[in-house]
Amino acid sequence: VQLVESGGGSVQAGGSLRLSCAVSGDTGLEHYMGWLRQAPGKEREGVATISSDDRIKYANSAKGRFTISQDNAKNTLYLHMSSLKPEDTAMYYCAARRGPLGETFFLKPDFFAYWGHGTQVTVS
User: Fold this and answer.
1) Which residues contact 62 (CB under 8 A, 6 or more apart)?
2) Which end of the chain is more exposed for a tag (fewer CB within 10 A), N or C?
3) What is the pLDDT of residues 92-124, one digit of tens each?
């Protein structure tokens, strides 16, 4: 599985960005995709996770401001971010995990097996 993020950049507080993750390789029909981030000097943290049956989980920091979505026809994962804050500044990573799907799923980094190289988001 190969994951390539794009769409990061510099934005003023209150602005919006849409991150994209191009997915190639075999994720399996049942899978999970996620966005995670890591700010300088901090641990990597989950932002949002989506299952292949469209169940979604958000970190408290993302609720109401970020939206995760997937376009299976385009093999692309998205993260639309609005009302951005300086504390959202981080490297954002796309991640994936093959199924099977279960009743519970997670945001945390060790839930995922495959990672992209990240795209930088800077909010000033």
Assistant:
1) 47, 48
2) C
3) 999 999 989 888 889 999 999 999 999 999 999
